[in-house]
Every structure is written in structure tokens, then in C-alpha cells.
Automatic annotation (TrEMBL), chains A, B:
Domain Enoyl reductase (ER): 9-274
Protein name: Oxidoreductase
Broadest EC class assigned to this enzyme: oxidoreductase
Keyword Nucleotide-binding: no
Length: 283, 283
């Protein structure tokens, strides 16, 4: 009876569920909960090895929103962009995997702040979506580019101020080559390197020194203290029609393996979610 | 009539001199000056293309101190360590090129703060110096090590909190592999990469993400606002016998080429300085 994300932590996943029975005075039947729960239509939670599980107020939004743009992906995008990158209106922002769960949210925060935003993605459909649905200033299919340095130079004639990196590898190298002085790189993921050590980024560190570039790795979980501020800002954006949801929902527990593999092959468009149960009427 | 550093900026260098004649009401005969001046026993300064030149109070120290530990190298070490690395007492600090002009000062600041400090250098003499003169907790000759990952693991069984990087390349990779969560890398120089692009560092960026590592390139010149604070702190350390000078002085303008080449070959021990003129009685 849960909606689960594709993010698997061996025993569990970040998801939303509904309480069907409770022996814990803090939770009542029909409460919604969010946090680390197990992969299953029904599961018994006993605090799950100390992992976070708390009550959820859906605030009138579909439950899936709370594992995506109002959940951990959203917090990761919000904290990474605002806390790490410290953006200013008008700055030039590049986002890789820009149609991914975090990337598309970063891009929307950046657009709403008044930044110039260009994103990379891995298919013509995704690129079209970024430009037409999300109003990016530019988007390109990295698979069609042979020289990423030149590609970024074309899209950023005035240089990149902020790079929100979800992929690592050669894209990170090209981004650093094209960065302005005092540029900031939020390192959120390195999906191009996960399965191939040979693809590790070897950025020009002399550039990093002379341009005083900051590269900061981070995890959304470190920013739980920002959750209320993040939810409030994001809900405002959604209600004002300035933030759009991009979800890719698979149905059934049996879809978990293909959903997970698909993340690494770039099949997902937006947040990959597995809807484990159909018993939740409003998700 | 100048003491000059080995840092050449095409037309000039960071150095100290004495005014022999002045048509500028701000400077009088026999004033000491510090800043960007030309390579020569005597030179005419007209503000040198807007570069910084100001009066110097030697405060009873040899003039050479003011191009080294009380000059730009010192400011670079001070700002890089305190502003970028934000060290805390007891933290584990690794410094590469630790007998170099900036590295040896960073290490001394770190020791004075109560950090555990290990440095790398390129000769047995330098390593001995680091351990015996500067009281490092450990030092090693990187040329004698075949597996830097294991070397750093040996010297940092509890991991590295701060890496002050002067060399880049494989040392940066090994340092990142051995860093603790929330580790900080101040990227001051990448001397191993200057002449060979093939030696660029390809650190494990997955480590950077999961361990929330920050890598920050910087230039000392951005921290001129800290100059008074830096000088005051450093003078206190010197007068208390808690900071030692490590200089490598060549004599005569004709020594500039070999001094400069020597920097890239690791011949210098401490701050490389060229004493251009013998007319300054007290330098």
C-alpha cells in the first residue's frame, strides 16, 4: 500500500504509504506517512532500523508529488541549488540530466529566480520537453554532440556561473572549461561514472585554481532542516503555476528491476516512481 | 635595488625595494616598498599598469620575509587554510609540496592550531626538515612511494579532514580517496599538471558526492582584505618562536632563469627568492 521511489537502499526505499493498522500512538489508521519504507504492497514498520518515517499532510496534492518534487528529489534540488550554488538572478546555469528527477527541479528553481538556464539530456524527446514545456533558454542532446567543450561554448557565450552536475565524466570537464570566475559546481550525481571507472572526470584543475571554482559534493539528507522552507516555497510555485511536475510512474512491484535499470540507461523522464499498490485511491 | 620573488608576471614580479628617488608625494627617498615591480637592480615605477605598490614597514624583519611568510606566500597560505579549509583544532591535515613556499606555512599554521599534520615532499632532505625542524606528525617522499592511496592510509588511519593541494594529479586522487566526510580541499596549485595534461587528476567523484567533499580553487590576491589580520597573527607566531622561515635565496638577476626552472623541478626548499641587488644593506 505504498508509492515508492526508485531509490533502493538494500532493504527499503523512500516512499509514501497509508496506515492500515497501528500499534504506535503517534500514528492512526488512515494517516499518510512518508520516509524509508519497505518494498511491498503492505509492510510492517517498526521505525525501520532508525530510519526516518513521519506523518504526511498531502496538502491536496497527489501522493506521488511527495516522493518527487515535494519529497527528497525536491529537497535535493532546492538545497543543492540554493545552499551550494548560492545563485543570483541573471546568472548562467547549466544542468546536466536536466530532465531527470532532480535536474528538472533545479532548472525550474533557476528559471523562477530569473537565471539563464540550459540543460542537457539524452533524447530528442527530452530536449523538446525541456525547451517547450519548461521554457529552458537552451537544451541539447549530449549523444548528438561530438565536442562538448564547443557545445557549451555555443550555449554559454558569456560562460557558465553555476553547473548542477548529475553526470560527471566528460560533461564535468567541459563545464569546468566553460566556467566563469567564481563558478560553482554542485556535484549531485555522477551517473556516467557509476559503472565505468575509466570514464572518471579529469577536469583542468588549473582552471579550477585560476577561476576560483568551487566543486561541492552533497547529499539532500544533510538539509532536512530546510524541509519546511523548501516545501513552502515549492508549494507556492506549484500553486502559482510556476513549477511543473515531471513523473515517470511504473505500476507494480514487478516493475522495480526494469525501473531501476532504466535509471542507468536514461529511460526515465522526470522522477522515476514505482506505484506498488493500487489500494491508495488518490495517488 | 629590489628583492624579488620567483613569481614572474611577464613584466614584473612580487618584490620589495627601496626608493632612491621619488617624484610621487606619497613616497620619499629611503622608503621601502612592496608589490609588483620590475626585474632589475633599479627600476622606475609609475604604478606599473595599475598594479599594487605600497609602502612597507619591515617591522624589524629581514626584507626577504616580506616576499615570503609575511608577503604573498603567507597570505595565500593563511587565506587558503583559514578561509577555505575552515580548520578546527585536532583535525587531520595533509599538505603536498609541504616544504614549498606556501605548503610549509600552511603546515605551520595547522600545527599552531593543534592539528595533526602530515606533508609530502620530493627528497629525503626535505622530509627530514619537515619532521625535525617543523615538527610534522609525519612526512614522506612521494618519489619513494608506489601506491599513494596506501601511503596516505598509513599516515591517516583516521582519514584526512583537510587537504591543502599544491600539486594536483595522482596525489589529489589519493587524498580524496582517503578523505573523511565533509572534507575540504584547498586547491592552491597543480604543479604536477602544469607541463603534462596527461597527468590531470581524475578523482573519484562518487567519493566527492557521498563524502560531501568540497574542492575550492583560490588565489591569494582575492584576500587582500585579510592582510592586516594575517600579518598581525603571523608576526605574533614568529616573535613567539612558533613560526619559522624557510627561504631559498639566489643571488643576482642572472639567476632568475635557473631559479624559475628549479621551481618546476622541485629544487627549492621553502620560498624561492631572487636577491637582485646587493645595495639593500639589511635584506
Amino acid at each position: 500500500m505504498f508509492v515508492l521511489t526508485g531509490f533502493v537502499k538494500v532493504i527499503g526505499a523512500y516512499g509514501v504509504g497509508k496506515v492500515v493498522a497501528s500499534g504506535n500512538p503517534e500514528f492512526e489508521k488512515d494517516d499518510y506517512v512518508v520516509g524509508i519504507i519497505s518494498w511491498g504492497e503492505y509492510s510492517i514498520s517498526q521505525g525501520f532500523m532508525g530510519c526516518w518515517l513521519s506523518k504526511l499532510d498531502p496538502m491536496g496534492f497527489p501522493l506521488s508529488y511527495h516522493v518527487g518534487l515535494l519529497g527528497f528529489s525536491g529537497l535535493t534540488a532546492y538545497a543543492g541549488f540554493f545552499e551550494i550554488c548560492k545563485p543570483k538572478k541573471g546568472e548562467k546555469v547549466f544542468v546536466s540530466a536536466a530532465s531527470g528527477s532532480v535536474g528538472n527541479l533545479v532548472s525550474q528553481y533557476a528559471k523562477n529566480l530569473g537565471c539563464y538556464v540550459v540543460g542537457s539530456a539524452g533524447s530528442p524527446y527530452k530536449v523538446k520537453l525541456l525547451k517547450e514545456k519548461f521554457g529552458f533558454d537552451g537544451a541539447f542532446n549530449y549523444k548528438e554532440e561530438t565536442d562538448l567543450d564547443s557545445t557549451l561554448e555555443k550555449y554559454f557565450p558569456e560562460g557558465i556561473d553555476i553547473y548542477f552536475d548529475n553526470v560527471g565524466g566528460v560533461m564535468l570537464e567541459a563545464a569546468i572549461s566553460n566556467m566563469n570566475s567564481y563558478g560553482r559546481v554542485a556535484l549531485c550525481g555522477v551517473i556516467s561514472e557509476y559503472t565505468d571507472v575509466g570514464k572518471r572526470a579529469a577536469p583542468n584543475m588549473l582552471n579550477v585554481v585560476y577561476k576560483r571554482i568551487m566543486i561541492q559534493g552533497f547529499l539532500g539528507g544533510d538539509y532536512m532542516h530546510l524541509f519546511p522552507e523548501f516545501v513552502s516555497t515549492t508549494v507556492d510555485h506549484i500553486r502559482a503555476g510556476k513549477m511543473h511536475v515531471l513523473e515517470d510512474i511504473s505500476i507494480g512491484l514487478e516493475s522495480v528491476p526494469s525501473a531501476f535499470v532504466g535509471l542507468f540507461r536514461g529511460y526515465n523522464v522526470g522522477k522515476k516512481i514505482v506505484r506498488v499498490s493500487n489500494d491508495l485511491e488518490d495517488c
